Fold:
Amino acid sequence: MEIERKFLIKKLPEDIDSYPHELIRQAYISTDPVIRIRRKGESFILTVKSSGLMAREETELSISEKSFDQLMTKTEGLVIEKVRYKIPERDQLTIELDVFQGVYAGFIMAEVEFEDISQARAYLPPAWFGREVTEDTDFHNSTLSRRTPQDIVLFFEKIERLTQS
Structure:
């Protein structure tokens, strides 16, 4: 079970490059149900996710680079690229800060994963976090992968509105 909350970011930490980080490249074989392939460093992962917002089932399977390359030919939509920073948080939590690249350059989002629903609900985000977007499927990576160029413009306009209100 994956239990996570998602947040827009007001301002990057000044020491961002001091945290461990790696490039992630992922694409979707299907977005309903979510079947994703991901390259993270030298790891290749096939993931299946159930529907849901804060909590959903997630199954991951390591695959070979050859399988990843073959499955890439079966994907739909945009390839999502981002640099993920792992920032230690209180209570043994980790902030996964995603700085998107490519067509989503300029978009930054943080995710925090939890052991259970009660821990997730009790979490108080740091001051540098912006608005929470956990309940908004527009911020699921699978949704990002399905956007047209015009949809991407509208998405950035939505982020602007959310950060100003």
In short: The helical segments are 65-72, 117-122, 141-144, 149-164. The mean pLDDT is 96.
